[in-house]
Amino acid sequence: MNVQYLNSGDFSDVYSIGEGKVLKAFKIRDFDYISEIEDIKSVVKAYWQAEVQAYEIVNSIDLLKCHFPKFYGVADTHELLRGVEGFADKYVKGCGLIIDLLEGECFKVSLLDSPMSDDVDGVLDQVSEQLSNVNVYDASAFILTDGSFKIFDFGQWADSNYEAELFNNKCLTNEMKQNYLPE
Question: I need a labelling partner for 32 at 20 to 30 A (CA). Which of 25, 60, 115, 143 fits?
Answer without folding.
Answer: 25
